[in-house]
Each structure stands twice: as structure tokens, then as C-alpha cells.
Amino acid sequence: MKRFLPVIFLFSILLLTSCGGPKAYFDYDQKANFDQFESYNFYDQMETGLNELDEDRMIQALNTGLSKRGFTSSATPDFKINFYTEVFEKQSNSSIGLGVGGGGGVVGGGVSGGIPVGGSRLYMSVTIEFTNAADDELYWQAVVEHQFNQDASPEERMYFFTEVVEKALENYPPEE
Asked: What is the pLDDT of residue 36?
């Protein structure tokens, strides 16, 4: 049993670190000159998929995140922002394995099976798009998926959107 303790410990660490935070995917126009984009504003009409309160939280998180990176909000922006969301369920990939085996001599046998653990979880996919205000062409996009709690408090929801925006903006502007 003592020789299995390090394996169990490493497995536990791997399990704890593989779960949790938001996952982000990025795409951008390689020809875009990111140095020209200093000021921003949001599109007037956006179909975000969020209620009005969560939409305001997302806008506040984007304003804070962009401001920390030196961008300014402007009535005549260099780029415009659109975002939209989708909520979906994701099944847990975790299971507990059980096995029974035996054998002796030249005869052997075994039975095993897995019991799913955790059930499904609710996730939100947030897509953030930056378009050149001059020609309305998309030049950068981030899609962030993060576990979402519909029953979260207003403070927890604000934290959720802040986390999503921080994950999205960690690759803006992209490093060439």
C-alpha cells in the first residue's frame, strides 16, 4: 500500500488542477495592425443572450479589463465590441472503476465496470468580438467557456464575468 501513496497523491493533484477555471480559444486577422486600436465602444444593438443585469456586468468587466490595459472608451472609437453567450450542459468525464478478478494455474477471469461520478454541469460560452470601427471588419475574437451557476448571487455573477473577461484579454493584443 505504501508504494501506491505517491501515485494516489499525484493523481489527486492532477485531478484538482485539471478542473476549474475558464478555457479560452482565440482567433485574429494576422494582417491587422493592433497598434492602431486605442479606443473602443460597444455596438448599440447587441443580442447577448444575457438578461439586462448580467449584460451590464459583462460591459463593466470589459470596461475595467480594457482600461487596465490602457484602452479608452470613446464616442468615436478605433474598434467596436460585440459579445454574445450560450449556456449548455457538459457531462462529467469522471468515473469510479470497479474490478473483480481471479485466477490460478492456467485459468483466469475478471469483471470490471465504471460508475459515473458528478453528473452534468452548466457552462456558459462567451464570445467577444472586436471589429475595426472604420470598416466594420472583425479582426479579433475570443471564445471563453466557464462553469456557470444560475443561482449565483450578484457578487458571484460579477466575479464570473470578470474572470471570463480576464481570460479573454490575456491574449489581446496577440503576440506576433
From this structure: 96
**Is the pLDDT score of 71 beyond 80?**
yes
Looking at the predicted structure, is the pLDDT value of residue 121 above 60?
Answer: yes
Q: Are 168 and 21 in contact (CB under 8 A)?
A: no
Residue 81 has pLDDT above 80, yes or no: yes
Q: Are 20 and 56 in contact (CB under 8 A)?
A: no
User: Looking at the domain 22-92+115-169, which fold is it?
Assistant: Double Stranded RNA Binding Domain (3.30.160)
Cell of 151: 443561482
**Distance (Å, whole) CA 174 – CA 176:** 6
* Cα gap 82→166, rounded to integer Å: 16
Cite the DSSP H helix spans in the chain: 5-18, 52-68, 154-169
pTM of the model: 0.75
Of 115, 112, 133, 121, nearest in space to 44 by CA: 133
Q: Which helix (H) or strand (E) holds 21?
A: none
β-bridge partners, 122: 89
The residues, ordered by sequence, that sit 6+ positions from 147 with a Cβ below 8 Å of its Cβ are 20, 121, 122, 123
- What mean pLDDT comes out for the span 129-146? 98
